[in-house]
Write a structure and sequence with these properties.
single chain, about 80 residues, alpha+beta, HU Protein, Chain A, three-stranded antiparallel beta sheet, 2 helices
């Protein structure tokens, strides 16, 4: 992709890269040098409160993708 790339082409390229990272991060921790680390963390089931009705609800267990930026990325 060069300087003449359209927004549609650039968007498709970014989407392809991110989707492959997200798919692989479901299985293992991914570290990209000078950018950060993607990792899937299992969140256990817990109780919470419905924000409108105020009733107690159970939030099911689910995986959550986390991102931790590298020190170089934050500079």
């Amino acid at each position: 992709m060069g300087p003449g790339a359209t927004q549609k082409t650039a968007s498709a390229a970014v989407e392809a890269v991110l989707s492959s990272i997200l798919a692989r991060a479901q299985e293992e921790k991914i570290h990209i040098s000078r950018f950060g680390t993607f990792e899937t963390v299992h969140r256990p089931a817990r109780t919470g409160t419905h924000p409108i009705s105020g009733e107690t609800i159970t939030i099911p267990a689910h995986p959550r993708l986390t991102f931790r930026p590298s020190k170089n990325f934050l500079k």
